[in-house]
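Internal tracking record. Fields below are filled automatically when a chain is submitted to the structure queue. Please do not edit lines marked as system-generated. If the sequence contains nonstandard residues, flag them in the REMARKS field before resubmitting.
Queue: standard
Priority: normal
Entity type: single polypeptide chain
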Amino acid sequence: SFPKNGQMDDQAGFTLLSMIRQEMPDLPLLNLSSEESNRQQAENIPAVFLNKNSPVLHSEIHSFFINHLGFGDFIFRLPDGREIARASNLRQMETTVPTVPDESIYFHGQRNHFSSWLMARSEVVLASKLKPVKVSDFANAAEAKKYLVNCIYEQRKGRQMGVITELVSGSFDPDADFIKVGKGSLGGKARGLAFISTQLKENPEFQRKYKNIDIQVPKSLVLSTAGFDAFINENNLKELATSDLRDEEIAKMFVDAQFPEWVRNDLESFIQHDRYPVAVRSSSLLEDAQFQPFAGIYKTYMLPNNHPETTIRFERLLMAIKLVYASTYYESSKSYAKSTFHRLEDEKMAVVIQRLTGSAWGDFFYPAISGVAQSYNFYPIAHLKPEDGIAHIALGLGKTVVEGETSLRFSPRYPQLLPGFSTVDDILNNSQRFFYALKMKNFPENFGADEDATLTKLDIGGAGNHSAVRQLASSYSAQEHRIRDGAQSGGYLVLTFANVLKYKSFPLAEILSDLLEIGRKGMGCPVEMEFAVNLSSDWDRRPSFDLLQIRPMALGQEHLDIEIREEDIAAAFCYTTTALGNGRSNEIADIVYVNLDTFDPARTVEIAKEIGRMNKQLVQQNRKYLLIGPGRWGSADRWLGIPVTWHDISGVGAMIETTAENLKAEPSQGSHFFHNIASLGIGYFTHSQNGVDFINWNWLKSMPIEQQTTYLNHVKLENPLTIIIDGKKSQAAILP
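SYSTEM-GENERATED OUTPUT FOLLOWS
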């Protein structure tokens, strides 16, 4: 009863419930009364009736919340009340809706059961979106189902962005963007991915600016360091950190070892749901740190992941992870660790299994563009400033860029200023001619011995019918000695990226500028990131920009004021206006230089081996040395420079890249090799043919030779060199 017009109205409660029912027909109503005679009147409204005197009243109220307010499972029913399916979460709801009969969708849709269930789970935005939608708005039940599924999918995707999902055994969600397996650390590389994924979520205006492009971190699963610890301990492999075994012997021991059962089970649930090409990447505790990044030291394996038998795909994945683990204890890893004063015994390895960016072109898979971008440019030219940043891009997989092969260099703020593309001859000489792709057929038998066994190197001209090549190429006419933008019939294809950098068919430069700034603000220092781009090849497919890796850059001590005086230059045997580093040192009394009289670009691999042997001797004597040679140090392209690895030069104190008549290459700062050199504070100088830089070869050749090989001379000085580097002006002088 309730007072009305001065009198008690014993129908007030029923009147109120009836009014609510008229205004909100789908709202669940509850009538609590101690009078059993009121049951029929409540059911006529209709409303659920509960007797206050019931001995199980609390249980009945609980059932009302579960069955009518959406706090329990969503129970799919037919109009006659029969239960046909259940869903306990959004993922199950998304997969169940397409399978239930149409009459069930109509039954629940007409009563707003879907929005009520979502509201009870605090999915307020989605519930509010669905509430005004009526099933009569759709032509048929199939359209209604599709709309409901799409709404749930978008909600789950948006909620998962920037979130690390812990894998619970038996509940793998193939739509989760970032999954973690195990309780250990993510490692450096995976931490960077988690960081930038969070930054993307926290910058919605950036996403809105490029609303027609999918800017994202590719789907990734991280096997944490707990997997590495369990694998190492259960197979008694810890002593390999200090062993002298060859890399091949270490790899065999890892391949023969067995994974713990929990790791196998979790990875098997992943491989059952994913048949997309993947990259299996290292993510160690020390990797991508600011001052010892271990960039490119550990192995990466790429898998087509397309075999029809799950067991074979699973075993290949396990093999790749084992080999990434094994690279923790390889010779190059041990050499680099010694240079950073880290103990390799303390290193732990997580592994990132990441969807590979790209598209299939015949039997090959690769992205249209891959590259490295840095928010600080060590070698600015013309009016560019170091803070304008620099990017190196290439067609195909990123191996071209990170291993120092031919790529296109530009500043994201000035994308049409291309220093290597000034004339037609420059473009022909400096443009990329080959690119890397993943082989989708004929999985190699020697997969374990070679991390590149699944890759192939393709010629630009031979891939001229691939859409990605045609979107990025221009045409050269030999008769006119002229290059025209666009891939035109009858011309020789030249990779200029004109459609992207000049005509902005894809806003690559703008995206890079914005992301570098987001990364710089988030990390509080300049950053370097690796990325890949898929261009749209048809009207139905959105282009994508995928962030593969981000790490802080080490800039050394550029804040120290170092001055190179005119008298220093006059007394120097080497002076350069393109130098990396900062400071003054008097620690190096040995010079190892490539003899330009015997240098042969076809013998750069042999030269690298000679350097490795001489480096080993000097390391044993604890003598740092200055290394001088033509082309890019550490380039994987033997025709652009000497392909030394870190193990070959682990004792170097400073390096000079110069030119020879038969080898001239632009300096590269986008490679893993260069990043490690920069982070360790090793002086790196480029001797250019600009009329200002010089090396006094006569003085160098006049020095008595301590040791000579086919291609190298080793000079041992009585007094150490004085090396002066002005990092603010990128100048350096080396005085005897």
